[in-house]
Amino acid sequence: MKKAVSFLLVFTLMLSLAAPAFATDSHNADLCENTPVIIVRGMDFGGLYVDCGTESEQPAINTDAGMIVSGVLKIIASGIINFSLDSAFDEVANLVCDIFGFFAMDENGDSLHNVSTPKYPESADNYENLRNGEGFEYGMVRTCIEAFGDGHTYYVNYDWRLDPFVVADDINAAVEAAVSETGHQKVSIVCCSMGGQMTLAYLSKYGYGRVERCLFMSSTFCGAQVASDLLTGKVDITADNLYNFVRNLSNNDVLSFLIDALNKVGIFKGLTKITDFILENYKEDLYENAIIPVFGRMPALWGLVQAEDYEAAIDFVFGGRTQENAAFLERTDRLQKMMKDKTDLINEMINNGVKIAVVAHYDAPVAPVYKNAHFNGDGTLETYQMSGYATVAPYGETLGDSYVPENPEYLSPDRVVDLSTALFPEYTYIIKGAPHVSGSYGTDYSEFLVWLLTYDGEFYAGANEKYPQFMVSGSEQTLSGF
Predict the structure, then answer these.
(1) Are the beta carbons of 164 and 194 closer than 8 angstroms?
(2) 212 near 354, Cβ under 8 Å?
(3) Residue 30 confidence class, pLDDT cut points 50, 70, 90
(4) Are the CB atoms for 215 and 189 separated by under 8 Å?
(5) Which residues make Cβ contacts (< 8 Å) with residue 142, sequence separation at least 6?
């Protein structure tokens, strides 16, 4: 009997000592009110590397000055020696391939070369460059580390060329790491720019059971017009779009005055006569020899193509070769279906308690190289898609005094954006003048981000009078109402 009692006492003591080892982190989660945050970055054009993480690592974009100078000289020499623009533009195509050749994908849409990007599998506070971030997604990461504490912010960096359903695995790994390491059952996802499409792929593939809230920040959750136009061959450069873009780059009165003067004397119209000639005579060759070989098989770009342009894009890029490209097109078909189903998916998330916010910007011209470059935007993407298909006046214009919105409350005070037609108007913020992927560390915008991630009341745009549905951003990302 004594032995039995002794054994019971020893067993009880061992169990009490071992209990902390068997305890889950859910107890800690009960004590911690900070839901972990997953930040899914946007496209980082210069962030891809050949042989990433090895001694032979090099940027995937070849910026070797000697190579570029040599290429330019070949263009000039070929044109002069052969007295032929055809020969010169052959060399232009060669130079494009020399610079961006490592970006090329194989016939299935997988990387043709050993190209990848740095990954951050542990929480962001373990990486010095993330702890000290300033602008764009890096500023967001630093803000969240300081707001929510170590171990509560995760950063998803990825190869933006890839099939979003492949990138979805990286997002899922970050979500599962956050859940496992913090003990929380759910996370908040902040998806920026291209990260919007990648996050849709994650939600489509893995579901939203782990998601407490999802913020679409300047994102591609509705695609991008620039991808639609470029993959359907709608390249166009107009004098007005070129002027607006250059004028917007000016940051001082003297330069602005000079640009305005050049516009008045017709410099931009003269330039477009040159570009029109080039496009008319060499666009097809440049696409065939450079643009399509380098960019034509990137699955992620095909996910951005608007549904109404998809068949035209297939015909333009592949012509009658759909059968031999069936494996690649199976991927793009899946992405198009994902984008088609997104509205039902997000509405289902909202109905099941997931907090959703869409944040879009306007009042900056986009790159003046495609047909619809008159769209209003944030300098990178178009407001129309970023906002979930709001009605948006062309850059530099308004919808007019006679315009009647379906819901007057959803018309911006300057009559440029009408959210009545947006997919989720109740949950969409529109900010005038904010740059693409705002949220720099220490700014009003970063405080707005933290509020979006922490507010626990009824979650709709304008719930906080400090952050009305329509805001204006100053040059330092200060936020105010109209």
Answers:
(1) no
(2) yes
(3) low
(4) yes
(5) 130, 131, 132, 133, 134, 441
Query: What integer pLDDT is reported at residue 27 of this predicted model?
Result: 38
d(CA 381, CA 115): 26
Task: Report d(CA 302, CA 286) in Å as an integer.
Answer: 19
Instruction: Please state the length of the chain.
Output: 482
Q: Decide if 412 contacts 418 (C-beta within 8 A).
A: yes
CATH no. of 37-47+119-226+336-481: 3.40.50
Closest CA to 156 of 142, 145, 143, 167: 167
Residue 23, CA distances (Å) to 8, 35, 369, 428 in order: 21, 20, 59, 41
pTM to 2 decimal places = 0.91
Q: What is the pLDDT of residues 248-290, one digit of tens each?
A: 998 888 999 999 999 999 999 999 999 999 999 999 999 999 9
Question: Distances in Å between the alpha carbon of 431 and those of 6, 359, 371, 454?
Answer: 71, 8, 25, 20
Residues 6+ apart with CB under 8 A from 419: 387, 390, 407, 410, 411, 425, 428, 430, 469
Domain boundaries in the chain? 37-47+119-226+336-481, 48-116
pLDDT digits (tens, 9 = 90+) for 446-474: 999 999 999 999 999 999 999 999 999 99
Token pair listed for 432: 């005038």
